[in-house]
Amino acid sequence: MTAQTTLLIVGVLIGVLALIGAVTRLFQFGVRRTQIRPGRTLILRESIALDPRRRVHLVQCGQRQVMLLTGGGEDVVVGWIQDS
Q1: Is the four-CA dihedral 53, 25, 59, 61 of positive or negative sign?
Q2: What is the pLDDT of residues 1-23, one digit of tens each?
């Protein structure tokens, strides 16, 4: 085995380990984002894409919920949802 082959193998191994680490961090970020923790006052309940640029979000703020339209020219508070 030559020195060049050894360096290639080590480089590929480092690349694979870095890729596994990056995927692990992305997975952990996604799991943390979807968990609801006790004592949280701001929670994203739903998010729906209207088109490639605009989305409608349902956000809980304390005991109330608000609907937001984001993207496009500006972000807009559509309104607060009344409790029934």
Answers
A1: negative
A2: 798 999 999 999 999 999 988 88
Give the 3-state secondary structure of residue 26.
Answer: helix
Q: Name the residue type at position 74.
A: E
Kindly report the CA angle at 76 between 75 and 79, in degrees rounded to 5? 150
Q: Which residue has the tokens 């409608």?
A: 56
pTM exceeding 0.85: no
- Distance in angstroms (rounded) separating the CA atoms of residues 82 and 59: 13
65 close to 81: Cβ distance less than 8 angstroms: yes
Distance (Å, whole) CA 75 – CA 78: 9
The full set of domain ranges for the chain reads 1-35, 37-84
Quote the CA–CA distance of 23 and 61 in Å, as a whole number: 31
R_g over Cα of the chain: 22
